[in-house]
Amino acid sequence: MKFVPDKMKPSFQSVLGEINQQISNYVRGQLTVAFFCSNYVLARLFNNWLEICLTIGIIAGILNMIPYLGSFLAMIPAILVGAFISPWMLVKVLIVFAVEQTVEGRVLSPLILGSNLKIHPVTIIVVLLASGKMFGVLGVIFGIPGYAVLKVLVSHLFNWYQANSSLYEQQSNEQQKPKE
Known about the structure:
The chain is mainly α.
């Protein structure tokens, strides 16, 4: 803030505050999704009598902080353990993780992150697909928070343009006139 001119400090602090709020909402949403996925995996594997289901459930929750890839990464130790127990247990583990990945990727993440960030769930999916295609794994990880930051910046830039442009004067004058 030392390098920002005094005249711009309040608006700059406002923008930084909103960006901070969006990032914290994103992290809160990711934690919520990870919690639900961890509990689902824990409950389903416990239901199938997998002895180390608590450990795998916790690993699934922690790795679920990586959007969309975390469930796949959490599936690897579960598959290894399931394969050593029995072929039938391996099938059960694959079914549990297939259902979890589908529900998390198509329903849970877009709804929770969308409501926390005030972004439409379809926009979440499109941003993830586009950023993943353009930037790979880093795009998947940083796509949504990057979009949220850009949304704040563009919104403030448009509000500034609207206030300083002569194109919007007539509209704002009409809104200020009392209606008879």
